[in-house]
Structure formats: C-alpha cells, structure tokens
Amino acid sequence: TMNSDMDGDMENQVELEEKTRLINQVLELQNTLEDLSARVDAVKEENLKLKSENQVLGQYIENLMSASSVFQTTDSKSKRK
C-alpha cells in the first residue's frame, strides 16, 4: 500500500501544479483584459477630444470661407466672363 500511497501523492502533486498553473493563467488573462479595457477607454476619450477639436476647426474654416470673397459664389463674377 505504500507504493499506491506514493502514486496518490504524485497524482495530487501533479493535480495541484496543474490547478496552480491554470489559476495563474486566469489571473494573467484578467490583468490583460483590464489593461485592454483601460486602453479602449483612453482611445475613446482621445477620439471624443479629437472629434470636438475637428468640429471647432470645421466651424473656423467655414467662418473664414464665408468671410473671404474668394469663396463667395456670386452671380456677378460668373456673368462678367
């Protein structure tokens, strides 16, 4: 029976090592997921900021164009030709 006891201990040891390995893998994956989520949040935030800056620039360009006669599509110019 001593031999079978040793076999049982070995099996338990292997099982324990396997469980430990799996637990560590799960923890590592959870950390990776947290990191990715944080990165996604950061990118979303940056995206919103850029969108808003883009709107401001678009408005600014529109204002410049409407203030400049170069971009005015007036009838008088096309008739002059």
UniProtKB/TrEMBL annotation:
Gene Ontology CC, one term: Golgi membrane
Protein origin, superkingdom: Eukaryota
Coiled-coil residue spans: 19-53
Membrane topology according to the record: Peripheral membrane protein
Transmembrane segments: none
InterPro entries from the UniProt entry: SCOC
Keyword terms of this UniProt record: Coiled coil, Cytoplasm, Golgi apparatus, Membrane
UniProt cross-references to Pfam families, sorted A to Z: DUF2205 (PF10224)
Signal peptide: none
Keyword Membrane: yes
UniProt-annotated location(s): Cytoplasm, Cytosol; Golgi apparatus membrane; Golgi apparatus, trans-Golgi network
UniProt record similarity statement: Belongs to the SCOC family.
The protein's role, per its UniProt record: Positive regulator of amino acid starvation-induced autophagy.
Protein name as annotated: Short coiled-coil protein
Lineage of the species this protein comes from: Eukaryota, Metazoa, Chordata, Craniata, Vertebrata
